[in-house]
Structures are given as C-alpha cells and as structure tokens.
Amino acid sequence: MPQTTTLLQQAASQCQARGVRFTPIRRKVLALIAQSGGGLKAYDLLDQLTTEHAAARPPTVYRALDFLIEQGLVHRIESQNAYVACACPEHAHGFQLLICRGCGHVEEIHLDEISDQLAARAERKGFRVERQTIELQGLCATCQTARG
C-alpha cells in the first residue's frame, strides 16, 4: 500500500483528470481510511472526523464514502461493513481482499483472471455483474508466527 501522502496525491490527480471535486472532507476521509491499515467503519470515521469538523454527521461520511468508492479510491469490506483504501486507485480492476482475523490487517491483491472468469460465467448465464467482492479471511504471516 502506498504511503498516505502518495495515495492522497494520486487521488487528487485522478479526481482532477476526471473533472470531479476532491473536497477537504473527501480527502480527510480517505486519509483516515489509509492510515488505519485495516478496515474502518463509517461511525469510527465519523468519530475521528468530528475532532476536526464538529459539524460532520453520518450523511457527510456516507456521501464521502460513496464518492470514494465510485472513484475507485476505497473498497467496501462487505463482511465487516468497513472500508479500506485501494492499493492502486489509478488502475480499473477486479480485486480480492485478504483479511486477517487476528490483527485486522487488510491487503488487496489482483487476480484479474478470476474476476474475468466470474464475469464471463455470469454473462453466459444472462447475469450482468454490477459489483464483485471477493474476501479471503484467515491469518497473516505475522499472526501465524505469533500463534506458533
């Protein structure tokens, strides 16, 4: 995962190139998610956001999250109802998430062939895929070592 500063710079450039606004609230929400290292829930974001923006309310956070997801800057962890920064937002792609149940670390991987195969199979069945989330849960190398 790129450092937060690099990720924010990439996000700003990407938004500018697309002609969409990367507002201070959207920037702050992305920064908080990127700094978390794991999934961050919307209300945890709200708690952190209100320290700098006292007027922030749940719709503020959810609108920012919707924007960040739409721009490919954040992924939703469906199983946890949490959010994680995209490791490479400049690339339109399928992705899979490795989620450690020990420490909560989330890592994004890219096996495009799996995403492509699933989409092709769905299409042959007459199904149009709108969103695809693949989550693999287990233990990261660090947690495996710690558990001996």
Proportion of beta-strand residues: 15-25%
Rg (C-alpha, Å): 16 Å
Order of helical and strand elements: HHEHHEEEEHEH
N-to-C span:
27 Å
Low-confidence stretches: none
SS-derived structural category: alpha+beta
CATH architectural label of the largest domain: Orthogonal Bundle
* CATH domain fold name of the largest domain: Arc Repressor Mutant, subunit A
Largest sheet: 3 strands, antiparallel
Name of the top-level CATH class of the largest domain: Mainly Alpha
How would you state the average pLDDT, rounded?
Answer: 90
| Portion in helices | 40-55%
Give an overview of the whole structure.
By secondary structure, the protein is of the alpha+beta class. It folds into two domains: 4-85, Arc Repressor Mutant, subunit A (Orthogonal Bundle); 96-147, Dna Ligase, domain 1. It is 47% helix and 16% strand. The protein is built from six helices and six strands, in the order H-H-E-H-H-E-E-E-E-H-E-H. It has helices at residues 4-18, 24-36, 42-49, 58-70, 112-124, 141-147, and strands at 40-41, 74-77, 82-85, 96-100, 106-109, 134-138. The strands form two sheets. It has a three-stranded antiparallel beta sheet with strand order 1-3-2. Strands 5-4-6 form a three-stranded mixed beta sheet, with no helix packed on it. Helix 3 crosses helix 4 (58-70). The protein is globular, with a radius of gyration of 16 Å. The mean pLDDT is 90. Keywords: Cytoplasm, DNA-binding, Iron, Metal-binding, Repressor, Transcription, Transcription regulation, Zinc. InterPro entries: FUR, Fur_C, WH-like_DNA-bd_sf, WH_DNA-bd_sf. Homodimer. Belongs to the Fur family. GO terms for molecular function: DNA-binding transcription factor activity; transcription cis-regulatory region binding; zinc ion binding.
